[in-house]
Specification:
The protein has 175 residues and is mainly alpha-helical. The N and C termini lie far apart (59 Å). Helix 3 packs across helix 6, helix 5 packs across helix 7 and helix 6 crosses helix 7. The chain has one domain. It is globular. Strands 1-2 form a two-stranded antiparallel sheet. A hairpin with a 2-residue loop joins strand 1 and strand 2.
Length: 175
């Protein structure tokens, strides 16, 4: 199957390559935003399923594939949050790891993860989004700027200020 958009043609194989190329970043971003492995997997699958269904709408002249894909992921997370507000609030279900650490490391690691997660969750939503895109998805400031329609340098300086604030809060609470 081939689909066309203006002069651009993307084949099934190209979509498969793009899937492989972006899968880990989309999952990491989703996990960073929801702190639940199963939910992050579901949101990642939903993101790629929607990208596949809507692939004919992708216009490389308007945005890069990465920007388009993360816009879909962001909307899937927003939709999920709306649904969750009607249900119970999610709890943190452990760390992002398939390895089983020692029990004492699990307790310490979970406590630190929970503490960091709480600090990030206390930030305004737009700051949480920046942190998730930068560190969860591993996107560059330029890509984040494209996705959020912001200047690259503004993204960098905002992330820097957020990180300074988180470091200070971490030090203050762990002193």
């Amino acid at each position: 199957m081939i689909f066309r958009h203006k002069s651009h043609t993307v084949t099934d194989n190209e979509f498969a390559r793009l899937y492989e190329e972006h899968l880990d970043a989309v999952f990491s971003y989703c996990f960073f935003r929801v702190a639940n492995r199963q939910l992050a997997e579901d949101l990642t699958a939903d993101t790629f399923e929607q990208a596949w269904r809507d692939r004919h709408r992708y216009n490389p002249e308007q945005a890069s594939f990465t920007t388009w894909l993360f816009a879909i992921a962001r909307h899937r997370i927003i939709d999920d949050r709306r649904k969750q507000r009607r249900r119970t609030i999610l709890s943190i279900n452990g760390q992002y790891s398939d390895e089983t650490p020692l029990p004492e490391d699990q307790v310490i690691g979970k406590a630190q993860f929970t503490h960091l997660y709480d600090l990030v969750r206390a930030l305004p939503d737009e700051h949480q989004e920046l942190i998730a895109l930068k560190f969860g998805a591993g996107l560059s400031n330029r890509r984040i700027g494209e996705l959020l329609n912001k200047n690259e340098s503004a993204v960098g300086s905002t992330i820097y200020r957020i990180m300074q604030k988180l470091r200070q809060e971490w030090k203050t609470e762990n002193a």
